Amino acid sequence: MPGDLTARLASALQVLHWRNLVVMLPLCVGGFVMLLPFLWMFSASLRPAGEAYHLPPSLLPDSWDATSYAQVFASGLPFLRMYWNSFVVAAASTAGVLLTASMTAFALTRLRFRGADSMFALLFLGLMVPPSLVLIPIYVGFARLHILDTQLALILPALASSFGVYMMRQFMLGQPRELEEAAMIDGAGYWRIYRSICLPQLGPALAALGIITFTASWNNFIAPFVLIKSLEQMTLPIGVVALQGVFGGATLSVLMAATVMAVLPLFVVFLVAQRFIIEGMTMTGIKG
Description:
Elements: H1 2-13, H2 21-45, H3 67-73, H4 79-110, H5 116-125, H6 135-145, H7 151-155, H8 162-173, H9 178-185, H10 190-201, H11 203-219, H12 222-227, H13 236-246, H14 252-284
Helix pairs in contact: 2-14, 3-14, 4-8, 4-11, 5-8, 8-14, 9-10, 11-14, 13-14
């Protein structure tokens, strides 16, 4: 165990060779510049109300004050309920996209039927349609079904993704088919091949797509803003806007505290699973 740790440390230190400084220094500077807004957001949440508006802004507060976080929960808004709503909607949407995208990609790449290429072209065109463009027909349809102002109204439109189908299809095109052909010779059907052979090989792509979908659903603002009205059904992005209305927009530190709590799960998800995102996106583009 100590030997493995020493070998890994030595391998990591090789990157610090002076020849790599030309690349590493600009990357470090660029990474710090990208993190500056998040650092200021976190520091602003720990400032007194008046200090948050000082110009020019400072990266670190003069005095640390964490009462803004307590004021978020004392505002009268069901903030924990909004956390739960965001998690339920994001988790259900992610599970739906992973299922529909992988099954559709399997059908387009493994089943031989007339019109498969035309169907994929139509799905690909769906990437060019802004999601906000279809909100009006979705609103009218859900109003007739009496499911407005429910979590179901946010989950149903997000159960399928043209981007997810494209990503899964590109990944499946690069998968070897020898195991599938051997399974068909042994009498396995398409469902067994999909479940036992294709899905295990799709691990990196499914992980990357799941993280991308979860993040997009968690940050979604337009659809909840149009389809949700009650506080009990609101998600976090709408909750932050509602919080601004409750406090009259006067306490920037409280808004930053709510934003920090809303963004924190995404930071954790990205830090834990960034390897899967890079691996999945890289392997998706191998063959097209």
